Amino acid sequence: MPDKGYLFSEIAALTGGSLSGSFTDDRIEEILTDSRKLSTSQQTAFFALVSPRNNGHRFIADLYKRGVRYFLVSSLPAQKFEGAGFILVDDTLKALQDIAAYHRSVFDLPVIGITGSNGKTIVKEWLWQLLSPEKTIVRSPRSYNSQIGVPLSVWQIRNIHNLAIFEAGISQPGEMGKLARVIKPDIGILTNIGHAHDQFFASHQQKLEEKLLLFQEAETLIYCSDDTLVDSLLSGIDNQRTKLFDWGYREGNKLRITEVNTSGSGTQIDAIFEGRSISIEIPFTDAASVENSIHCWCVMLLLGFGPVVTSERMQQLHPVEMRLQMNAGINGCSVINDAYSFDPDSLQIALDFMMQQNQHDAKCLILSDMRQGELNEPLLYRKIAGMVNAKNIHRMIGIGETIAVYGDLFQAKAVFFKDTESFLRQFKSADFSNESILIKGARDFGFERITSLLMQKSHETILEVNLDALVHNLNFYRSRLKPGTRLMAMVKAFSYGSGSYEIANTLQFHRADYLAVAYADEGVELRKAGISLPIMVMNPEESGMGAILVHDLEPEIYNFRTLQMLITAIKRFRVGAEPVKIHLKFDTGMHRLGFAADKLPELTKILLNHPEIRVESVFSHLVGSDNETFDDYTSQQISGFASIAEQLTESLGYDFMRHILNSAGILRFPEAQFEMVRLGISLYGISSDEKEQSQLETVTSLKTSISQITHVGKNESVGYNRSWKAQRDSVIATIPIGYADGLSRRLGNGTGHFLVNGNIVPVAGNVCMDMTMLDITGIDAKEGDDVLVFGRELPINILAEEMDTIPYEILTGISARVKRAYFKE
Hints:
Elements: E1 6-7, H1 8-15, E2 18-21, E3 27-28, E4 30-32, E5 44-47, E6 50-51, E7 54-55, H2 60-65, E8 70-73, E9 85-88, H3 92-106, E10 111-115, H4 120-131, E11 137-139, H5 149-154, E12 163-167, H6 176-183, E13 187-190, H7 204-212, E14 220-224, H8 228-234, E15 243-248, E16 255-263, E17 266-273, E18 276-282, H9 287-302, H10 307-315, E19 324-328, E20 334-338, H11 344-357, E21 363-368, H12 377-390, E22 395-399, H13 401-405, E23 413-417, H14 420-425, E24 436-440, H15 448-454, E25 462-466, H16 467-478, E26 486-490, H17 492-496, H18 501-509, E27 514-517, H19 520-528, E28 535-537, H20 545-550, E29 554-557, H21 560-573, E30 580-585, H22 600-608, E31 613-619, H23 631-652, E32 657-659, H24 663-668, E33 676-679, H25 690-693, E34 700-705, E35 708-712, E36 717-718, E37 724-725, E38 730-735, E39 753-756, E40 759-764, E41 772-775, E42 786-790, H26 796-803, H27 807-812, E43 819-824
Parallel strand pairs: 4-5, 5-8, 8-9, 10-12, 10-13, 11-12, 13-14, 14-15, 15-16, 20-24, 21-22, 21-24, 22-23, 25-43, 26-27, 26-33, 27-28, 28-29, 29-30, 30-31, 31-32
Antiparallel strand pairs: 1-3, 2-9, 6-7, 16-17, 17-18, 19-20, 19-43, 25-34, 34-42, 35-38, 36-37, 38-41, 39-40, 39-42, 40-41
Helix pairs in contact: 3-6, 4-9, 11-12, 22-23
């Protein structure tokens, strides 16, 4: 059996590739598709995937330096790599899926395959909770359900496993057939079918038919027949190969739901199955959880679990955390809480997330025993220790009796506790300072108590920053660039209010080419945080020129005064013999900053007389690239800029990068992408173009909660100066956010509207320094409920319109006292 992997030559045969290179035919145990996530170079094969926005072949040389010796490629590198082996295939993604499909076929274990628009990951994780007491389960890590994620998930199957649960997601036609041959499920589950990705299919029915391809060879398919389209498409599928296990509220359903009663914090679901009445209780009240739990219930019934065991386990279901979140901790720490489950795959993802953020040099890991019924305990902990050691964790706190037994496997400075209570008794806040802390443990260890001690206490207003959405937007624009065009990401003004090094770390990890800040001190902070990308300083000041040179920042030079400031600073602070890189700005119509075209001769003369300065780029700023009314003017700006750049190239005798396009211009004027573009507000999910906006994801959400609910009578006033009076008997909610947090007073007295439990409600009275009142009359709400100021369900553009301003002002005005929480789905 393939627990020890496959010979490299076997992989060549299985993928139909041709071998080359002077390599040792070693066994491959690890597959790598992302060079940034290398954990061990031993027995690892890198698949150089090619996509519209990236090409894995670019990273072969770097991986070779880091010890990797086995590569699957679609084109052989020109450079020779001694001792390395290459498998040449037509399509590296297909090769990845081929080897995973073969690996799946080797194992004789039941496989559950899940697809749908919503609920896939929840159902998968709940099935793991329900079935893991008896089964040793391999499952998709988090939401690894893509063309790449599925084969990586299937590759994790080993001899110790006796059940597999994989989810499959698609976004366009032709994808599911490829995943079906990799997963090849015995039991299929079709979850809720929504409208995600509808724009890529001819019809909703076509999308559903594509999803159903996953189950064409399944023995049983579980689905809700209340969806009439689903039921009609499946009505003729019941045959000897695939048996239908439908549930719903109608006569004739295999599992007929008779009643759903919600009370307090739970729901009781009654049903009839094979002629007898059965019921379960779940600790959730929302409709989505009810639907997801019934899918799980069907699996339990199909597998023959009795009503008592099923009922007990359903009551113990706990929420599935769908994201990794990083928060500010005590004593300058950053805390990543991932304490809802613990398995090797999720540990690897959490470690990668901590390394990606790289907020502190010192890194601490708090780790519990693994409770997963693994049969080979020594092998399991060697694997865990290998992951941890590869990330250079500085210290580790192990909690549990088992992990202590294998303490010698961990290279970090380690201390162990018998249980969580033992750790809490000896906890001292002073022991944690200026470090990144990853909290990772099995649910029954109750690590939320540790998280509570380590988290920085703050008021209940929070700005959530979705790093996955940021990366999506980055890649959306990168995929629209011409080959070779670089991308400069704007992180000035605290990354438009979203945070500084947290955003920069993510951009660096995902290989942005350049960063731009407003002032030198912003760039210095990024350098101190470990950011090594080139950084342009857009507003260099005389007092900051020394810091620019010392920290290898690159100033924007927009007039002769700033140029002379730099020349003077070079004489005092120049470090090394390399020329100082500058970015020349020319005024082509904004009339804000920049050299005029007629200054070219004088500027060229100075630059030629100072070889210690080298022009890295020239650029200009468009006035109205988002407004078609100004398209002729924009074209004039672009033409004038191109002429200036051409003249300067001839005069200086060397090439440099050119960039004039901002966010709005990248898609509207692709002919002017030149060597680089600048991505600003659209990186954060905001575009003035409706079609473009539909392709972006929301990065920031400002949330708070209700502190108090009061009742006021008709004609009673609310807030300062009695500027708002109730037109009826009203219910008023007070929320802990005010103008000191960046909430404009312009939103007062009904101008602004927020979201409470899905309902738009107006601001009542003036916005106060630390508080704001809302009129929630007629809304079902209670103290402690969440309030959305802006986010995906209430776009910031709406708030900007109410304030008669632009989203820039709102984002950059959010106070530093508002806690930022960064998360990754």
